[in-house]
Each structure stands twice: as structure tokens, then as C-alpha cells.
Amino acid sequence: MQFIMTNPEAGSGLLADGLAERGPDGGLVLPPAFTAPPARRGFFTLIKRRRRMAHLEHANLTVADPEATASLLETLFGWRVRWSGTAIHGGRSLHVGEPGTGSYLAIYRGAEAAQQAPVDSYTTRGALNHIGVVVADLDATEDKVRALGYTPGSHADYEPGRRFYFREENDIEIEVISYA
Length: 180
Description:
By secondary structure, this protein is of the alpha+beta class. It is 15% helix and 34% strand.
């Protein structure tokens, strides 16, 4: 179950207290575990999550430095680390994603620092080709990408939106898209 605000103006205190965040549409997003205080129940409506046949919960990527990769995703997209800890084969993992959505990237580093990326992901079976991230303001995000020292490329403007690509330190290609 999930709470939504029936009176968004009443949510300013929740935002200030860090109990809610602004969603991509400007509405308030409350964590799934949120419990409305009895004194404030008049401001909230309890709704059931819409059932979907299926949705992507996460993808798991192997990187050299999970903290650095998570920091990049936080800086560029406003994502947050929702969990971190030890992982399979003596490795370490961070789960980073957009708050309130339930979707995230698991950023993993194995115990051996010498893990290698494939020479060409498009010719290696099972390799990741790229990650696509939708943003509200493509130009502002591209400015952030450049300010961090990355080189955007492969700009395209065709239906249904505009996009560009860049590669980060682990040679993971990230496609940034805007449908605005």
C-alpha cells in the first residue's frame, strides 16, 4: 500500500522533515513503509498500488568502485543509495535508484580488483550494451555530464524524444533521454 497527498500544500512539513520527496511530476512521494500519523490522516488517502503484469526492479552491474559509481548517479539523476553491504563472492554492492519508485541499479564490485570489462559489449553474449535514463531537463543534465568531465555524444532528436550518450569510468554507456 502507498499513501498519496490529498492536500499537497500540507506536505511542506513532510518535505522539510525529509519524510517525503518531490516526484518527477512535482507531486509528493512517500516511502512505501510510511504510516500516516493519526493527527494527519485527514491529509492522506490510502491507495493500493496498481497491479502490473511485470516491471523491472533492478539490474546488477559490476564496477571498479561502487561508491564512485553511486555518487555519479546521485549527482546526475538525484538518485539515492537505498542499501549497501557485502555481496556474493566476497564482493560489495550498493543499490542506488530514484526514491519512491522501487527500481534501482545494484552496483557490485567483486573481491578481485582485476575484473575486466568485455572488449565490445555488442559482440559479447550476456554483456550490457547501455543503460537508458529519462530526465526532465536534457540540457541541464548534459551540462552536469560535461562539468564532471565526461564527453556527451551521439546526440539524436527523433520521436519520441531527444537523447545523448556518454561513457563513465567503467566503460558503461549511459543514454540520457528526455520526452519533454
